[in-house]
Specification:
mainly beta; Immunoglobulin-like; six-stranded mixed beta sheet; three-stranded antiparallel beta sheet; 9 strands; 0% helix; globular
Length: 130
């Protein structure tokens, strides 16, 4: 049996269009709002068509010393130019998630994104909370 963890891919988001990038400060104050975003295609654009697109991005936080992460936010992208004809439809959703979070301790921000053709991709960013 192949566990799902064995199918999650990672790469440098500057060189791989499927790898999500996380934008967040390196440090924050405990309990104060922090703006965090996760984007697929930040450095290299990812296709956004009915045949090839990012379906969703999820953002997690793994506190130092914890075994399991906390899901902070999730975004699903439903408009990929689908239409009833061969002409692309009128609406497209860009694969970008933004959230404001409050953290009580240091840990690692993690994000997972799903491409309908190339599967699951992950990235992470440590954040110091004091």
């Amino acid at each position: 049996m192949n566990p799902i963890s064995a199918t999650i891919q990672s790469a440098d988001w500057k060189a791989e269009k499927h790898a999500p990038s996380i934008s967040a400060p390196d440090a924050a104050r405990a309990g104060e709002p922090v703006a965090v975003s996760a984007v697929v295609g930040d450095a290299i654009p990812h296709p956004n068509t009915p045949r090839h697109h990012i379906a969703w991005i999820a953002l997690y936080f793994l506190p130092e010393g914890a075994k399991l992460p906390v899901e902070l936010a999730r975004a699903e992208f439903s408009a990929h130019g689908a239409s009833a004809t061969d002409v692309p439809g009128p609406a497209f959703t860009e694969p970008r998630l933004s959230a404001t979070v409050k953290l009580a301790k240091s840990g690692t921000l993690q994000t997972v994104a799903y491409c309908n053709l190339h599967g699951l991709w992950q990235s992470e960013k440590p954040i110091a909370v004091g």
